[in-house]
Amino acid sequence: MARFDPHRHWQHWGPLALLLSPLSLLFRLVVALRRAAYRLGLRRVYRAACPVIVVGNITVGGSGKTPLVIWISRWLEEQGWRPGIVSRGYGGRARHWPQQVRPDSDPQTVGDEAVLLAQRSGRPVCVGPDRPAAVAALLSHTDCDIVISDDGLQHYALGRDVEIVVIDGERRFGNGLMLPAGPLREPVSRLRGVDLVVCNGRPRHGEHAMRMRQPRLLPLRGEAPPLPLERLRGRRVRAVAGIGNPQRFFDLLRRFGLQVEAHPFPDHHAFTEDDLAFDPPLPLLMTEKDAVKCRLIAPEDTWVVRVEVQPDAPFVHRLGRALESLSEQ
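^ thats the sequence. predicted structure below, dont judge the formating
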């Protein structure tokens, strides 16, 4: 039986959107009241002892935030900052939060994205559903002097100095409706109040471009130099993806000339050996987020597709100016 994909229904107005639209209006009201409570001081906002950069989106599903968070952390280091990262730890089953995350942490305990962030950024990472508590724990255990909050736009209990929104350039805002009739967590008008808007795709007026660098292949097991993804051009491969937008990953592989047999899974899927047992055997490709969970269960001929991004020059300039203004305060 095919898995129900809400994003397919959220891309347009239809009977389901019409049926759920009253709930969307109610959700929009709740979101507005909640945000107003923080603005008016009716709910407490935690202010960290250092600058906080929030990277998030206003829609449900993957938009490319994680590669941008990794890029920002590395860029901050180049500018002389000591960044740390906080995240939700979604999918993690830790009994106690917050959790400090190392590159070798168990993704079942702290979440797959958290381990990936620790591995790729090389910076301290702390996760937990309570973002202020995660930031406080990060700062108490490290020498970080700036914090990046991954997927933290709607966590208003955490004060922030810079807000960055990432837009999926393909899906964008779907039918323009709030949950559950559409994909929006907040109305599109929310973008007028953020500092920077980045489009993972073709940007529109007022949006910055985020360009993908040459994707590379790394063996999931063993050590070997990375190979360009084009090395498999014309080859038949299998690809698995348990991310917010699996189709984006499969489309990437096809753009580089691979013949892809696609196997989508739910976001943050807990893979088993049976999920990865295919016949006949073919090269198996997966995302980095999935790879952190599959190292011990994947077949030998499994490859990780590493994707890196580069925001456009105006984005880098504006981010630098924003941080300069914070230093002058």
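The mean pLDDT is 93.
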